[in-house]
Amino acid sequence: MTTRIALATCAALPDLDPDDAPLVTALRDRGLEVESPVWNAGDVDWSSYDAVVVRSTWDYTEHPRDFRWWTQRVAQASTLINPAQVLTWNVDKIYQRALEAAGLPIVPTIWMDPARKFNARAIHTRFPAFGDFVIKPTISAGSRDTGRYAADETPSRALAIQHVKHLLDAGRHVMVQRYLKQVDTVGETALVYFDGQLSHAVRKAPLLEGPYRAGDTDGVLYKEEVMTPREASEAELALGQRVVDALPQLVPGVEQPLAYTRVDLIPDDQGNPVVLELELIEPSFFFEQAPEAVDRFADAITRRL
User: Fold this and answer.
1) How far is CA 248 from CA 26, 53, 304, in A?
2) Which of 288, 274, 235, 242 is nearest to 261 (CA)?
3) Which helix (H) or strand (E) holds 263?
4) Mind listing the domains of the chain with CATH numbers?
5) Of 5, 48, 209, 277, which one's alpha carbon is 20 to 30 angstroms from that of 245?
């Protein structure tokens, strides 16, 4: 009997993101039947698949409650990769509090809860006094609903207040983070791990250039990223491994190693790496920059069948 694999995607990408095309080929070369069902389509029999791998489900941030429910349903019907408890833990960027509590360095962050009913003055007092800063919702992806502001410019701070109020009024939790300026020259470093082992690293060019503008990202799954191969520094490798090693303590019930993990790092003002994102749901793996990584991921999947 043929082993069937689902690479879950979203309606906007019924044939998956082009970066995943080599993965489909690699899995089929291993004798597997591969399909790409839409995660929230109502007519998919998930129990018909031997495993479901979460790939380009990039609209899940618009339906986080449905996505959490979907992970539980699929986990009962098939083998879900990564496990459901990992996916649900990673939906909301409030997970970064757990990283910080575990002694892992993150970007300095102020958290704002819509239940607090912040007025404009209270919002203003939570912005940094100098430098640039970033506002984003805690559930988001692809730099959607995110803006960059200048702390020492009154018009910019006014736009930032409007941005925060817009998010809070919609019932969304908000993060206010310092913009660490070395990212403008160094960029981000994305470390990709399969089965807990480092596969490759890439450089992501900076994306944020200005304030949030309503409607700019309507219908946009993600902003285009400029990627190049990168050789990670010793400090980046050490921090990335610390994050991977900490996952069993951070996520109850997780079994190490995970099939895949991506750790995104940026330098702080002293040049030391800090965690910007921990991607455990549907990260891009940038196979174009590291073609040899396709087989490593395909092997990690087949080992779980």
Assistant:
1) 29, 20, 18
2) 242
3) strand 260-267
4) 4-89 (3.40.50.20), 95-105+182-286 (3.30.470.20), 109-178 (3.30.1490)
5) 5
**Cross-strand bridge partners of residue 273:** 267
Nearest to 108 by CA among 123, 92, 130: 130
Is the pLDDT reported for residue 148 higher than 70? yes
Q: Average pLDDT of 240-269? A: 94
Burial 259-270 (b: 16+ CB within 10 A, else e): bbbbbbbbbbee
Helix, strand, coil shares of the chain, percent, nearest 5, are 35, 25, 45
Whether the Cβ atoms of residue 179 and residue 209 lie closer than 8 Å to each other: no
H runs (alpha helix) in 170-273: 183-186, 234-250
pLDDT band at 216 (very low <50, low <70, confident <90, very high): low
Q: How far apart are CA 188 and CA 98, in angstroms?
A: 21
- Using an 8 Å Cβ cutoff, are 232 and 170 in contact? no
Sheet holding 227-229, edge to edge: 227-229, 197-204, 188-194, 260-267, 273-279
Tokens representing 33? Answer: 């039947």
Q: What type of residue is 140?
A: S
Q: What is the mean pLDDT of residues 193-213?
A: 85
Predicted local confidence at residue 238, as pLDDT: 98
- The residues facing 172 across adjacent strands are none
Residue 47: left (phi > 0), alpha (psi -120 to 50), or beta? alpha
Q: Is the dihedral of CA 279, 213, 167, 64 positive or negative?
A: negative
